[in-house]
Amino acid sequence: KTVEEDMSAVARSVLGSTPATARKRAIGLYRAWYRAVPTICETFTLPVTIAACRTRLREKFEQNKEVKDVRVIDMLVVKGKLELEETLAIFKQTSHVMRLFDDPSAVKNNKDFLTKFLDNN
């Protein structure tokens, strides 16, 4: 087999998915994360409540609710499953899990050392 044949086989398997089955997989992933939140909070001793974690989880899933392409949905579900497996296997550290709570709309202050130094004087 050539690389193109392998890639087309992968594309066909993803394209064979219907929007209904993709939705079921996304909901299944959400439920798996939802059930895992108490374990994650306890394992990583997060300084947030379980309710706050579940709220952030819902926000993360709602960020992608407008995605209609089945291939993209499948890719997001696979990435979400991988993230969940890595989190539950404790391949991450607490700081990695806490990044989920960072506000992406917050303006980051990326000044270099000299600028910071001069601003303080």
Essential attributes:
121 residues, 0% strand, mainly alpha, 68% helix
Quick structural summary:
This protein has 6 helices and no strands. With 121 residues, the protein is an all-alpha fold.
Description:
With 121 residues, this protein is mostly helical. Helix content is 68%, strand content 0%. The termini are far apart.
Note the gap between the termini.
67 Å
What Rg, in angstroms, do the CA atoms define?
Answer: 19 Å
Q: How many beta-strand elements?
A: 0
Largest sheet: none
Helix content: 55-70%
Summed up, the helix count is 6
Mean of residue pLDDT?
84
Give me the strand/helix succession.
Answer: HHHHHH
> Which structural class do you get from the secondary structure elements?
mainly alpha
Could you list the spans in which at least 5 consecutive residues all have pLDDT below 50?
none
What amount of the residues lies in strands? under 5%
List the helices and strands and how they pair.
Blueprint (H helix, E strand, L loop, with lengths): L2 H13 L3 H25 L6 H13 L7 H19 L5 H5 L14 H7 L2
